[in-house]
Each structure stands twice: as C-alpha cells, then as structure tokens.
Design brief:
Chain B: One of its GO terms (biological process) is transmembrane transport. The structure holds two protein chains of two kinds. By secondary structure, chain A is α+β, with helices and mostly antiparallel strands. Helix content of chain A is 25%, strand content 33%. Chain B starts with a helix and ends in a 6-residue tail after the last helix. Classes of the chains: A alpha+beta, B mainly alpha.
Chain lengths: 366, 275
C-alpha cells in the first residue's frame, strides 16, 4: 500500500542518450498505472529507476513520501514481475517462493506456512517440487506472481508480463491480473506497448514517446481526448486517420487536402474559423465513420473501396479518398452486403468526432 | 525400399567410422594397460601377444617405490591449485562479466597472455625467484606457478558462463532482498556449476600433467608423479612395465573425478543455454 511520486525524473545513458526526460507522475495508493508507448520510449527505463536497478541522473522518486533514489533495490520493499519471469533455473517452485522470505530471516515454520498459502491462492500446490523448466508458460507466470506477492510488497512492478503467453492465455491472464490487483489493492506499475492491454487493465495510463510523457489520464480520456498527434495515432485499432491539408476560407470554410475536399457543418465551421492557422492535420477514427446517404454534403468523405478486410462482426475497409487512404470500420449488420473493391462509398462523421492538430507542434487544436 | 537401404548403409558407415576413431584413441590406453600386466620379456615380443598370463609384479614394484609419495604430491598440488583457481577465477570472471571496468578488454587480454606464455620462457626466472625465497623443492612453489596458468584460464572460461546468465535473475534476487555478495553465492554461482566442473577438469589435468616446471623446481621432497615417472628411465635402461603400471595408477584420479562430474561436464562442454 503506497503512493508513488516521480518528480522531474531524468535518465541519461552515457553522454548521448537521454532516455527519460522530465517525467512527473503521481500514482495513488492502490492504483494500477500503465506505462504505455512504443519500444525505446523510456517506459522500461523509468520502471528500472523505480526498482532501483539504475539511478536517475536527476529528479526524485518518492514512495510514501520518502525519497528512495539511493535505497538498495532490496530495501525498497518493491516486487517485480519480469518479462522473462526471471525464475531461478536451479530452484524448485517451493524454493523460489521461499527465497524472498529467507532473505527476511523468517522462521522455517512461518516460511512453510506462507508458501502453502500462496501456492493455494495461485493453484500451484501440485507443482511445488517442480523446476521452472518443467512448467508451462502460464504456470511459470503464476510462480513469478507468487514470488512477488509472497512478501507483501508496497509496490508491484510488471514489465510486459503477458508478452510471452499465446493470445488466448494472454486475455485470460489479463483478467486474472486485474482481479488479483483489485482484490489486494497493491499499487501497481505495469509496462506494456500493447494499447489493448493498457485499456483493459489501467486505472491510469501514462503514454510515453522518446523519453517524454505525452499524456497521463484515465483510459477513456486518453482515447477520447488525446493531447497530441502521437497519442491520437497510438491509441486505437486501427489507428486514427490523419489528413494533411489547409483550411480554405471562402464563402464557406472548407478543408483542402491531398485530393480531398471536405466541408463542415455550420457548428463545426464556427469552431474551425477561430483557429489561427491554415495548415492543419485532421484526425478521424475509423470507428467513428458511418455510411452516409448520397444527398449529405457536410462532414462527409467520398471514396472508392480499395481493400476490404472482413472481421468476425465488422469490415475494416480501406477507402481511397483523393490521394489518401482512409480506414473505415463498419459493423456487418449495418451494411446490406459485403462491399466490393472499386465500389463508391460515402461516409459521415459527427461534429464531436473530428480532431484537429497543428502540423508543426503536433499539439491538438480542437 | 531404396530409401530404407540408404538409411541402413548410412548408419553402418557411421558406426564403422565411429568405431575406428574410438579404437584409434583407445589403442594407446589399451597398450599401456596390457603392458603394465606383462613381464619385461613379453612387452617386447613381436608380433605383440594379446593373450598372456597377466602379472601384478609391476604394480607391486611401483607401489613399493617412491611413486605413491610422488603421486600424493601431484594430487596435492593439483587439488590446491585447482581449488584456488576456481575461487579467484570465478570472483574475477564475475567482476568482469557484471561490472563496467575501464579497459576491461585490454586487462582480459593481458590475463590471457599469461596463459600463452611458453613455460620454458619463465622457468629460469621462476627458479631464481623461488631460490631467493627459499621455496625450491616445495609443493607451495608448484602451487603458485600452476595458479598463474590456471587462474587466467578459469577467468576466461567462467566469464563466458557468467555472461550467459540473464541479468534479470540477479536483479530479481536483489529486489528479493539479497546483497550483491549473496546474489553471487546463491544465484550466479550455482548457475555456473557446469562451467566450474569444466574448468576444474581442465585445471586438474593441466596441473597433474605439468612436467617442465616440476622438473626444474623440485629435486626430492616435492617431486611429482610425471617427473618421478621420467626418472624411471635410468642409465641401466627403461623399465617399461613399471612405467606402464605407474601410468595406469596415475590415470585413476582424473577418471574418477570425470565420472563424478560427468553430467555437469557434458552441459558445460556444450555451453548449454540457460533460461
């Protein structure tokens, strides 16, 4: 049970690699915070600073109000699940589970009791005398969780703990992890590059890119109100469509892009007129586009069906609009039949689903 | 059918070749063992006699000579220098493997160069050194010299094994509350056991077989088995029967040790990946 605060955290590897830049973050007691970002974005480096494996170049890490920058990893009472699980190959499951307790010099009886408890809790009773090599991936992961839980840590760190599991087991373990964390209310940091995982698990997401924090917020906030172009493009499957172009101010305001011409509803026009610049990037999510009738003019894009990817209950359609490809996600039940390549298609979006970004600063304008 | 025939032929060829190689390597050993059981006359009979009445006279003779004492010297020197080399070698190798050391490549090469030195180049300086230290004809002198060769070898072999251990295993142990020294003894060292076995065998064989330094630095008290064996060649002639018997006895410790650690050894030789 603990509150974690990161304050102006910086990490340099040598003189040339600035891996983590000015990271500020507050993780409340019992919260599960996901560090999300592509590989090399600094999320794992941040985690390793919290664990104590690397020392921050500057900035402070507070755990329950105490600065832990210079504390030895073993003195932080922090537990970690590694991507590879890091189970000791020369120890049986029983020995692995007892290992952290032996370091605390607990009595033999106390250790045996707690090992039994945790084994029961994680359904590992039948495997206690096996070696890690003799376990399945899912069992190994449970051992790793058990080894982390058994000493009742203040903070739980997880470094892509599901990445070694196959797709089905991953979804199952994701739900289990979430349930476990909610039951125990242990403050948790979870590192992943998988946005679906982040959306499914997190109380709070910190999106990172090139060592910087891009946005911190609830999963739904990050999805609905991305702070900038990177976050908008990173969150969502398939990714948000981006259209580069200029706003042309005539009798009515219009967007002129790469062979794309788009006019807006009166209400949206009113907002767009207020923008200081002409060059913009428009963003529309594939799932926010719906089929439009022929007479509709405003907020519509017209194009030619280029590729159709049928999914179980929907189609993902690549629509060629001018020189751009726009992805559209349509539910099967809303369509008369399967769209064919070459077919003309008109799609519409509501006012609230249009995002506007500055092409230079990449900040969100609207 | 033709496919099956091919497979059978391939297997037969493989077996014949494997058998041939095994026999070629076994032949000197068999020869020595047989010679140790023959009388002086039988050893030189041409064509060699494969069936004869074995005698243990050679063993009786050799066991009543200085050979046992020399063998004890050999084993003592080999065991101590191997043990010392493993201790220093594993600690140093771990340091080089895990901690950033300025110029570590150069230092490692320098350590290896000690091993590349031909013994004949240093044997006279060693002789002078040990003479002024009053250590001539002592097992301590031999232990010291063998350690120089064996430690550098141990460092190189064991560094490779330590490099193979995923760093997360050590990080996990640190988070679990173990100090760096405890991490070394409880996690890293047990994981390089195959490496320790391999290194031990090589150091042991190297120290047992060493001849030149032992010949130069010892006279009576600290004479080792190889030197003692060579001294069986006298101006009165060479007693091949006794030499063979001594050689057979001399092989026993290495064979026993190898059998003892053979599982680790196989894993060590194949440099098995650890995960």
């Amino acid at each position: 049970m603990a509150t974690l605060v990161l304050e102006k955290l910086n990490l340099w590897y040598g003189k040339h690699t600035h891996a983590v830049r000015d990271v500020d973050l507050v993780v409340e007691d019992g919260e599960l915070c996901v560090f999300l970002g592509p590989s090399g974005c600094g999320k794992t480096s941040t985690l390793r600073m919290i664990a104590g494996f690397v020392r921050p170049t500057s900035g402070k890490i507070y755990l329950d109000g105490q600065v832990i920058n210079d504390l030895y990893p073993g003195d932080r009472n922090v537990a970690m699940i590694f991507q590879s699980y890091a189970l000791y190959p020369h120890m049986t499951v029983r020995e692995q589970l007892a290992f952290p307790l032996q370091a605390r010099r607990l009595s033999r009886q106390e250790i045996a009791k707690r090992v039994e408890e945790i084994a029961h809790f994680l359904h590992l009773e039948d495997f206690l005398d096996r070696y890690p090599q003799e376990l399945s991936a899912g069992q190994r992961q449970r051992v790793a969780i058990g080894r982390a839980l058994i000493r009742k840590p203040r903070l739980f760190l997880m470094d892509e703990p599901l990445s070694q599991l196959d797709a089905r087991l991953r979804v199952e373990m994701r739900a289990n992890l979430r349930k476990l964390q909610q039951e125990l209310r242990i403050t948790t940091i979870y590192v992943t590059h998988d946005q679906t995982e982040a959306q499914g698990l997190a109380d709070k997401i910190m999106v990172m890119h090139q060592g910087r924090v891009q946005q911190v917020g609830k999963p739904i906030e990050i999805y609905e109100n991305p702070a900038n172009l990177f976050v908008a493009g990173f969150i969502g499957m398939p990714a948000m469509n981006f259209l580069r172009g200029v706003l042309v101010r005539g009798e009515r305001l219009a967007f002129q892009g790469n062979g794309v011409r788009l006019c807006f509803s009166r209400e949206l026009e009113g907002k767009l007129v207020g923008l200081p610049q002409e060059e913009v990037i428009l963003g529309i999510r594939p799932e926010h586009l719906v089929l439009a009738s022929e007479e509709k003019e405003e907020n519509t894009l017209t194009g030619e069906v280029y590729v159709v990817e049928p999914q179980s209950n929907e189609y993902i359609i690549d629509l060629r609009v001018g020189e751009e490809i726009v992805k559209v996600r349509l539910e099967k039940r809303n369509l008369p039949g399967s769209p064919r390549g070459g077919e003309r298609m008109r799609v519409f979006f509501e006012d609230r689903y249009l995002y506007v970004f500055d092409p230079v600063t990449e900040k969100r304008l609207l | 059918m033709r496919e099956e025939a091919k497979i059978v032929i391939r297997r037969v060829v493989f077996l014949v070749v494997a058998l041939g190689i095994t026999l070629a390597f076994m032949f000197p050993l068999v020869w020595v063992v047989l010679a140790s059981l023959k009388t002086r006359l039988e050893i030189f009979v041409l064509p060699p006699k494969w069936i004869f009445l074995p005698t243990l006279q050679n063993y009786r003779d050799i066991l009543h000579s200085d050979f046992l004492y020399q063998l004890k010297n050999s084993l003592l020197v080999a065991a101590i220098s191997t043990g010392v080399s493993l201790v220093f070698g594993s600690l140093t190798a771990y340091g080089f493997s895990r901690y950033p050391i300025r110029g570590s490549d150069n230092i490692l090469f320098w350590i290896l160069s000690l091993r590349m030195l031909p013994p004949i180049a240093v044997v006279i300086p060693f002789y002078l050194l040990f003479r002024s230290l009053g250590l001539l004809d002592t097992t301590l002198a031999l232990v010291l010299v063998y350690c120089i060769f064996n430690i550098s070898f141990s460092i190189w072999v064991l560094k490779g094994f330590f490099d193979e251990i995923p760093i997360e295993l050590e990080e996990a142990a640190k988070l679990d509350g173990y100090s760096p020294a405890q991490v070394f003894f409880r996690v890293s060292l047990p994981l390089v056991r195959p490496g320790l076995a391999t290194t031990a065998i090589f150091c042991l064989i190297q120290s047992l077989n060493e001849f030149l330094v032992a010949l130069t630095l010892t006279t009576r008290k600290a004479v080792t088995a190889p030197v003692g064996l060579a001294k069986l060649q006298t101006f009165l002639g060479t007693d091949w029967g006794r030499i063979s018997a001594a050689a057979v006895i001399f092989m026993v410790p290495v064979v026993v040790f190898t059998v003892f650690v053979r599982n680790e050894l196989i894993r060590g030789m194949s440099f098995g990946r650890m995960r």
